[in-house]
Request: fold
Amino acid sequence: MRDGGKARSGLLCRLGEPARSVWAKHDRDSDGWLPLWRHMEDSAAVAGLLWDRWLPVGVRNLIAEALPRGESDARALAVWLAGVHDVGKATPAFACQVDQLADAMRGQGLEMRSVRALGPDRRVAPHGLAGQVLLGEWLEERHGWASARTGQFTVAVGGHHGVPPEYGQIKALYEHEELLRTPGVSSRVWRQVQTELLDACAEQFGVAERLAGWRTVRLPQPVQVLLTALVIVSDWIASNPDLFPYFPDGASRNDQERLAAAWQGLDLPEPWQAEEPDSSAQELFSSRFELPTGAEIRPVQEAAVKLAREMETPGLMIVEAPMGEGKTEAALAVTEIFAARSGAGGVFFALPTMATGNAMFPRLLDWLERLPGVAGSRRSVHLAHSKAALNEDFAGLMARTGGVVAVNVDEAAPSSRQKLDERRRAGAELVAHAWLRGRKKAMLASFVAGTIDQLLFAGLKSRHLALRHLAVAGKVVVIDEAHAYDTYMSVYLDRVLSWLGAYRVPVVVLSATLPASRRRELAEAYSGRADEVVTGETRASDAYPLLTAVAPGGVPLVRRPKASARSTQVRVERLADGLDVLADRLDSELTDGGCVLVIRNTVQRVLEAAHALRDRFGAGSVTVAHSRFVDLDRADKDRALLRFFGPPEKTDDRPTGRHIVVASQVAEQSLDVDFDLLVSDLCPVDLLLQRMGRLHRHRRGQDQWERPERLRTARCLVTGVDWTAGVPAPVRGSVAVYGRHTLLRSAAVLLPHLDGGARRPVRLPADISALVQSVYGQDPVGPDHWQDAMKTAAERFDEHRDDQAQRAAVFRLGGIGKPGRPLFGWVAAGVGDTDDTPAGRAQVRDSRDSLEVVVVQRRGDGSLATLPWLEPDGKGRQRAGLELPQDATPTRFAARTAASCGLRLPMQFSGETMDRAIEELERLYLPNWQGKNSPWLSDQLILALDEDCQTRLAGFALRYSPSDGLEVTRDEDD
Reply:
């Protein structure tokens, strides 16, 4: 075995033969290997480049503030920790694993027992933990550190495989010193090699003279997390044999050539470096967004920009404003200011669902194309949710990027692969970088839109959690639809906000409106203050719109901008629950035509209403929208809704006769649709106000004269309740979804409007905050004869909320410890690797495990094909009825099309029924699909419908149609 390198490595020159013989990497297929010294130098060099060219300024500053000499100390510490992270491989417990490499070490006096002889005790000394112990010993023995001070530095070594060690593991290893050094004569040689490696790294990486100055440092825990994450990223890059080839092939280049080739091949886009815009708010919005000619920005938008500029330090800003006021654009404008002032290198835009994430992604791309420092530059972007690869906008970005491979910087004539890479690098473009993909790394891209789960995972004790923290620590975080998150999710969100505040991450929270108590909780979690100052300032009045801002550790600032001139008065009326009642009422309302939105709280009620209304009005006059459509059909539904019911300036296809859309909660948020009349099941008042935002959303002629005469006054008919009972009785499905307590309080605050008729309409936006604060406040509401029922409902609500909080806390990350306290046990008793998986998503949302299937059709001859009604893709390629061979791997396009027909089965298939359903689904096992040959279909459960689009599963009859989605009924034959 050769030491390698045209010019001897700086580290190599400091080592004797025994230390040079220690190995770090081995490939069993090629028998290639890598000496430990080589991997140490590679990792340190990568860390230096990451620090200089990839790590956002804000992250660097946060680490630098913890050290005496600021950034020079911080960079040196990061490089050194990356360099020594694998020193634990210089132990018998690790080195014994490959016989020929172990024999070479034995030849240098490093005796060790075989893997078999060491037995299961080897598990006590994983090389990360071993390295942490060796480094701690070295700091104490060679540099006089107190043992209590070493852990805050060495934990980055111990945790570089994603889980910081626990105290019990450390103690167990100290009781098995034979795993660190073979007893007997060889022990001295082992100790000499370990010391020599650490001495050499300290000299080579420039910290030898700084260690004395660091002895009294107390590293904040957020800094420990960031250093650990940087070590992990450096190790992953330096461990990629395509970038850093193994010996003997990789021994021909010197240090500089090896690093240059690897970094050029990796080709990581640099972070955004925002420049603070000095233009007026009007000019800023005009240049970043497509405003109509002569359009003026809204008061909320102007006030948000002004407040961002007034804040001494970027922090948390909560924007509460009505639907349609441009909160998204306000958030992006504030983001630009916050990023420039904080040194953030990107943005994460968190949304409640995959559908809203998909809708936001092209808007984010449009903004980036106009953003200084991004437009005309190469920056990394990502769509972060479990089905991102099926999104056509994101898939197009992925298709433009190649793989990751080292580049031969000395080759005279570039290969065709290199030419492809050069074309890929040459363009100033937004890219979905190949290395920044996958569950662990995707959030490290600079600009990310995704589901709120991706942010909540930063509060879930899981493997490689440090990477998620590094990903958000370098960004401005925008949280949309904050009112949509329940107590369970809020337990995670509040803990994440506390860490974001400690990282000094700017955060913008968007909501139609928030209860004052929730506003206070968000400010307290982020600021780290829970005193009367925060409580008093965030209590605010019923002012609306409302802006609340607070810096980490600071005092809240509150602004009350004027509402825009846009306002709507909605007359609220009771409607008895019953399908005939609904059909009769709509028949009378639609005598002159009109477009009605009927929102039901459960899919079952959606389908029942749709069937009844089709019988009365005809199939062509009724559209259904809910969550039980396959992904492609769901996307088509959203596009159709926007085409027919979107803003008047964007569509000419609005139905001229009678048309009814029957929808579930999917119609509540993020769709810019406009209806003449709203019929809604009773729901929490903040959500009812969201639904009202789809009513007369746009002006259609002076005084709405383009609408049918009977529907020119905005009206909301509230149903799903027995209004004749002494205390209103919501239907069972609504109670199951929202709980009786919030429904009764919502009904109570609506009473003056329900009883007042035309005299007491709900004024939007003027009444929004007062209604919401009344429902979620502590003061009694409703008539006296309701109070006993409301008290019982409140007690059950409190029990449910306490149960949610307790269950959420089981795997929730702990709070931030005192500076200097090591991160030992940081993710102990966590969920392991299950963060961004169905199980992980169920953990940060209060939901039972559910089944997701890929839906295909089985033809009469037994063959399988994609669903027969699918529309062509964006390139015009046919997707309907594509052959899916059972004895071969489907084509990439056919497999992707099939995967795009994913469907989450309803709750009937959870619990005990789930096991039976899985067993039945697994009877259709196709190795060429569900194995590793087809990445789109690997490990997917396949639901095959017959030619009539029906099947049976686990005692239920299933029927699917592109018009109604999935219908599930109890199988009478079961």
